[in-house]
Specification:
The chain is α/β, with parallel strands linked by helices and about 280 residues long. The protein contains 7 helices and 9 strands, in the order βαβαβαββββαβαβαα. The protein has a 5-stranded parallel β-sheet with strand order 3-2-1-8-9, sandwiched between helices. Strands 4-5 form a two-stranded antiparallel sheet. A two-stranded antiparallel sheet has the order 6-7. Helix 1 links the parallel strand 1 and strand 2. It is globular and about 55 Å long. About 15% of the residues have low confidence.
């Protein structure tokens, strides 16, 4: 069995990615970072719960709170508001943003990105006008939940650990096609970072970045997790809350979208929505 570093935030995508690394026959070294995010304690609990579920012995929790000191993200800067999203699911009621966020703060649906794949998922970005042009035909706004260059920081730590434990694979649960539009979640970024690893590590290292979810929809990710018996009930995705998930942040909406597409019920609870 070869060793693999898995970037395990505790979220749904990283949980399913961990299941993929185990399915691929690797000994998992689970890396978690605390970077001053709003739900840091809850994510850390999810990380340890998932590790316990899989009996993962090799765990490394790293503090990179300098990302919070640098700022620039509503996940780390509490003076910035985490944007809400509206998730409309066929044959189901709308998750009411007004139950968690005052109606006066909700941006009209006409201001958001058009629906995809029959599900209306409408990210609402209040901050800035930065965009990504995906292959010249789709412009995606970058939300204020983007933590500047976070994945590069985490991958650098993972690479250092990989050199020490002789791991040849770094697993990360990044999703490009059906996510929030973060620039450091794109396949082109990971391929470029692989070149950085080849250039900057000891001769003879052959460390690759594995992104098993990169081109999956959220529904496909949920189905993959269920097929692999990933402990989705232990994962945590909410950007805002640590008790019950808010149900209206972009991450909650994407997660709910995935369970709806998969025809499954999310095993975690949501505040003010009646969704389980």
């Amino acid at each position: 069995m070869s060793n693999a570093i898995v970037l395990l935030s505790g979220g749904m995508d990283s949980c399913v990615t961990t299941a993929h690394a185990i399915k691929d026959g690797h000994t998992v070294y689970a890396l978690h970072v605390n970077y001053g995010q709003r739900t840091q304690a809850r994510e850390l609990k999810a990380y340890h719960d998932i590790c316990d579920h899989y009996s993962i012995d090799h765990r490394l929790v790293v503090d990179i709170s300098h990302l919070a000191a640098i700022g620039g993200s509503s996940l780390t800067d509490r003076t910035m508001q985490v944007p809400s999203a509206e998730c409309r699911v066929p044959n189901s009621s709308v998750i009411p943003a007004s139950d968690v966020i005052p109606a006066s703060d909700v941006i009209p649906a006409s201001d958001v990105i058009p629906a995809k794949a029959g599900i209306h998922l409408a990210p609402r970005f209040r901050e800035g006008d930065d965009t990504i042009d995906r292959e010249g035909d789709e412009v995606v706004k970058i939300p204020n939940t983007y933590v500047p260059f976070r994945n590069a920081n985490i991958l650098a730590i993972a690479t250092s650990w990989a050199e020490v434990v002789e791991a040849n694979h770094l697993y990360i649960g990044a999703v490009e096609e059906d996510s929030s539009g973060y620039p450091d979640c794109r396949e082109v970024f990971f391929r470029a970072f692989e070149e950085v690893i080849r250039t900057g590590t000891k001769p003879g290292n052959d460390i690759t970045i594995e992104t098993p979810l990169i081109h999956l929809s959220k529904g496909q990710i949920v189905r993959s997790g269920i097929e692999l018996q990933a402990p989705l009930h232990l994962s945590w995705s909410c950007y805002s809350n640590e008790d019950l998930a808010c149900g209206v942040c972009d991450s909650c909406a994407l997660r709910l979208k995935g369970f709806s597409e998969a025809g499954e019920v999310d095993p975690i609870g949501y505040k003010g929505t009646g969704v389980r």
